Amino acid sequence: MDALLAQGEISSKILNLRGMQVMLDRDLAELYNVETKYLKRQVQRNIERFNEDDFMFIVTKEEFEILRSQIGTANFSKTRALPYVFTEQGVYMLATVINSPIAVDISKNIMRTFTKLREFSKHYNPLARQIMEVERKSDKQYKELKKALDELINSSNIAEEKVIGFLK
Predict the structure, then answer these.
(1) Share of the chain above pLDDT 90, in %
(2) Cα-to-chain-centroid distance, residue 24
(3) Which residue of 44, 56, 76, 84 has the smallest Cβ count within 10 Å?
(4) CA gap 92, 95 in Å, rounded
């Protein structure tokens, strides 16, 4: 799998839940090219690796409804059991229990994607704060500029009207 394609596909499957970045069992099963029930069975067989919330947890009914409304896919309508979600550490642990030839490669790409998202977050938050500070400081200048631009746009909307057609 192309690394760039994999990271794009993976990052679209990373969700924020309970203040953590997580991935759904069905998305991981798809990436690992195994069935979701196989993935869950492997987790249950090795539950001692996943029995802490910072590795894996089962969503509540309320969280499930929120996820279903956010994601809005038909696949959730077929789901009877509440999905498992895995944190970054849980995804790593999952790779050790899934006996799939592509599990190792996919896990590497998932770890790289989590890392890139974390790096982006580090740079994004200070940048957002700086932009807000600039907006706050230059609020008066911004309002004056906006007023001037609005006047310019309004004056350009008034075009010379030419009469087209026949006059009586």
Answers:
(1) 11
(2) 12
(3) 44
(4) 5
Tokens representing 93 are 């642990």
User: Which tokens sit at 18?
Assistant: 């309970």
Rounded to whole angstroms, how far apart are CA atoms 127 and 120? 11
How far is it, in rounded angstroms, from Cα 50 to Cα 15? 19
42 pLDDT higher than 70: yes
The angle formed by the CA atoms of residues 125, 131 and 136, to the nearest 5 degrees, is: 125
pTM listed for this prediction: 0.58
More confident residue, 120 or 50: 50
Q: Name the CATH topology of 3-117.
A: Mlu1-box Binding Protein; DNA-binding Domain (3.10.260)
Average predicted confidence (pLDDT) for the chain: 75
| Section 158-167 average pLDDT | 57
- Token pair, residue 70, equals 């956010």
Instruction: Write the CA distances from 20 to 14, 75, 87, 112, integer angstroms.
Output: 10, 23, 7, 17
Q: Tell me how long the chain is.
A: 168
Q: The tokens of 21 are what?
A: 């970045």
CA pair distance 7, 31, nearest whole angstrom: 11
* pLDDT at residue number 74: 45
